[in-house]
Amino acid sequence: MRHLLTRYAGVVLTLALIAIVGVAGWQGWRWYEARQDRKAAQVYVTAMLEAEATGPQAAAAHARALATFDTLARSAPPGYRTLARLRAAALNADDGHATAALALWNAVAADRDADPLLRGLASLLWASRQLDAGDPGVLAARLRPLAIPGGAWRDLAEEDLALLDLRQHRTAEAKRRLTALMQDKTAPGGLRQRANALLAGLNG
User: Fold this and answer.
1) Are residues 153 and 195 located together in one domain of the fold?
2) Is pLDDT above 70 for 1?
3) Of 115, 139, 156, which residue constitutes the final position of a domain?
4) Which of 61, 59, 109 is nearest to 89 (CA)?
5) FRET pair for 158, CA 20 to 30 Å: which of 16, 98, 125, 175?
6) Would you say residue 70 lies in a domain?
7) 121 within a domain of the structure (yes/no)
8) Where in the sequence is the domain holding 52, given as residue range(s)?
9) Are 96 and 151 found together in one domain?
10) How many domains does the chain have?
């Protein structure tokens, strides 16, 4: 037994050292990731505050915010990259830059590395912004996958599909969707109220 212990002592020690270094390396990497997340969070919050600026300095503040969001979208940890693009899209939309907003939403929706929930939100916002003038077939194709039962964005996607039906004079289908939304106890209260108001107008 002593002979075996002596023979394999070096191997055991080497394996132990590898394990220790591996754990230390993993912990070091987690520390580095956490540090990067904190830095990204601080930068993101600062940009958010500038994005919400109003008054005479708003244009300059919004430009700085967009530049920061662009930097985060290229170099921040994955979660903040997606959030930065979504917030930049919203800011562009609010400031009247629809083309830039649509491009950012579309990019997030197509990003396979992004959180599926945020990809769905990006698709929803991309479609919602074009309900009045976008191609109905293209918009419906983006909304239908979001309207599946149990989906996070199901109710909002159904509302948009109903509005798209109305735009195409498919009143019966719109009424069906709106009635289902109004009767859905799990749907947000505000959405159910909107569905009820639309139905009242259609039936009035």
Assistant:
1) yes
2) no
3) 115
4) 109
5) 98
6) yes
7) no
8) 36-115
9) no
10) 2
- Give 118: exposed, middle or buried? Use CB within 10 Å, 0-12, 13-18, 19+: middle
In the numeric block, which tokens belong to residue 187? 């749907």
Contacts of 163 (CB under 8 A, 6+ apart): 131, 174
Task: Let me know whether 110 and 143 are in one domain.
Answer: no
Same-domain pairing of 140 and 108? no
- Range picked from 15-24, 27-36, 97-106 for highest mean pLDDT: 97-106
Q: What pLDDT sits at residue 64?
A: 95
Distance CA 44, CA 117 (A): 20
Do 54 and 101 belong to one domain? Answer: yes
pLDDT digits (tens, 9 = 90+) for 94-153: 999 999 999 999 999 999 999 999 999 999 999 999 999 999 999 999 999 999 999 999
Stretch 141-168: mean pLDDT? 95
75 in a domain, yes or no? yes
Residue 34: alpha-carbon gap to chain centroid: 21
Residues 6+ apart with CB under 8 A from 95: 62
CB count within 10 Å of CB 128 equals 18
Element (H, E) at 155: helix 154-167
Q: For residue 30, is it within any domain?
A: no
Token digits of residue 128: 């919602």
Query: What tokens does 36 get?
Result: 């990067």
